[in-house]
Design goal:
Blueprint: E1 2-6, H1 14-23, H2 26-31, H3 40-52, E2 56-63, E3 66-77, E4 80-87, H4 97-110, E5 116-122, H5 126-134, E6 138-143, E7 146-152
Parallel strand pairs: 4-5
Antiparallel strand pairs: 1-2, 2-3, 3-4, 5-7, 6-7
């Protein structure tokens, strides 16, 4: 079962440390825009700012109660947000990506009342491209080695 919790905003919290460890994973760094190791103090400042920023929602996806993925929504317009997602490296290749991404999008649509969700993904990040496409995202644009994908809420 996939659930979400809003992160503990304390910069020295276990949530902060978990996000930092996942972010410094070599594969994650390679697929990120910033590929260097992130020093703890830099991460602490970013985390403290992001966890409390208006227009940003920072979550931990839990898979059967265990931390599985960092999910961040950055508002871009009244009903649109850019999604940033980082799967626990220990869960790669275990087919959790699509269900977690789908659940994160449902959270964005239902809890945050978003009408659309955008994501920018490196062209070389084939696993993420496949996951986003399987979750229903549609390619919108290409710019500077990134592909922009969009998922629009279905209106009933």
């Amino acid at each position: 079962m996939i659930t979400f919790k809003i992160v503990d905003p304390a910069p020295d919290s276990q949530d902060s440390r978990t996000v930092w460890e996942w972010r410094n994973d070599p594969v994650t760094r390679h697929m990120s825009l910033t590929t260097e190791l992130i020093p703890w103090e830099s991460h602490r400042r970013w985390y403290e700012k992001s966890a409390s920023a208006a227009g940003t929602t920072l979550l931990i996806a839990l898979l059967d109660g265990a931390p599985a993925c960092m999910v961040r929504f950055d508002n871009r317009a009244a009903d649109a947000a850019e999604l940033h997602i980082n799967l626990n490296p220990a869960l790669r290749g275990k087919r959790h990506g699509v269900p977690i991404l789908a659940a994160a999008c449902a959270y964005g649509f239902d809890q945050l009342k978003l009408g659309s969700i955008l994501a920018n993904i490196k062209m070389e990040n084939l696993p993420s491209l496949k996951i986003f496409e399987h979750a229903g995202f549609v390619r919108q644009a290409e710019h500077a080695g990134l592909l922009t994908y969009k998922l629009t809420r279905l209106r009933s």
